[in-house]
Amino acid sequence: MSHNTFGHLFRVTTFGESHGVALGCVVDGCPPRIPITAEEIQADLDRRRPGQSRFTTQRREPDEVKILSGVMVDDDGIQVTTGTPIALLIENTDQRSKDYSEIKDKFRPGHADFSYEMKYGIRDYRGGGRSSARETAARVAAGAIARKIVPGLDVRGALVQMGPHAIDRDKWDWDEIGNNPFFCPDKDKAAFYESYLDGIRKSGSSIGAVLEIVAEGVPAGLGAPIYAKLDAEIAAALMGINAVKGVEIGAGFGAASLSGEENADEMRMGNDGKPLFLANNAGGILGGISTGQPIVARFAVKPTSSILTPRLTIDKQGAEADILTKGRHDPCVGIRAVPVGEAMVACVIADHYLRHRGQNG
Questions:
Q1: Which pairs from 10-14 meet CB under 8 Å and 24+ separation?
Q2: Rounded distance between C-alpha atoms, residue 34 and residue 81, angstroms
Q3: Cα of 9 vs its chain's centroid, Å
Q4: Are 337 and 301 in contact (CB under 8 A)?
Q5: What value does the mean pLDDT take over residues 33-56?
Q6: Can you give the pTM of this predicted structure?
Q7: Among 7, 171, 179, 174, which Cα is nearest to 86's?
Q8: Burial track 237-260 (b if 16+ CB lie within 10 A, e otherwise)
Q9: Per-residue model confidence (pLDDT) at position 309
């Protein structure tokens, strides 16, 4: 299997399966002397970790990261990167492969089972194997390193819609995100989501979500106007997350309903002598290049395909069958996708920062 690596100068290669011994990644291209500790990486992994509330899968994984290479303690007693490949390992400790034994020959609707089998002729039926969303833990670990590369970079994410229910943006409060299990910036809507998702969960069904990632402190000039557009690579990175079915930058699809006057982000000179944008419909990117404004990206995550409601399918022999997916699954997989989205955006920005520095000095 190829295509396990993303990035150009900041390159991440992930490995491992959902029910294997471990998963992890190798981060190559990280500059030397970047302070980094396992505790900093662990903090991001803990935000993604399953089993932290009744609204996520009850698989109990500590997701404890081990740094195998690429760091050392310098003369000042600070652990820093050495410029060599950084290998990170996360062991699997709570696999229940028997949960999938009854359906190992059936294709789960909405999952990658059928397409995976068609491509490789073999698949790991235990939770999806390599195509499982568990692989994203390695991306979050890599993202923790990426965040350290760009000076002043701050990447944050939030759940802004669950099912058809969107937040009230006038009530957006970043401090609320840590106060509820949904990464929701709207306190009132978070309370609604609690009862709403309880109903979804108890019925054995699932629901989708929309997540928003905001990257602040991004310098102007990252990206390129043709084949390395910053927004294109952010969109590709987000689209590469499991279960993501749509991505938009800035006003996104909403821009189609705006007039030219409404959509254009007008400019003035600020009191500090720097350009001041009066709006950010472009999401911080114009012509594929960052403007210095906050980069804003949203992505839609489909409902978890593993549900308790029987579905129609076929098996490997072509016989029609019914299927019911048992086991431990997220009623809204979009919740834990917030740290993953942050990580992917951080990785893309770090990569473009290094590419810009290499070309422009």
A1: 10/146, 10/149, 10/347, 10/350, 10/351, 10/354, 11/351, 12/138, 12/139, 12/142, 12/347, 14/135, 14/138, 14/139, 14/142
A2: 5
A3: 20
A4: yes
A5: 86
A6: 0.93
A7: 7
A8: bbeebbbbebbbbbbeeeeeeeee
A9: 84
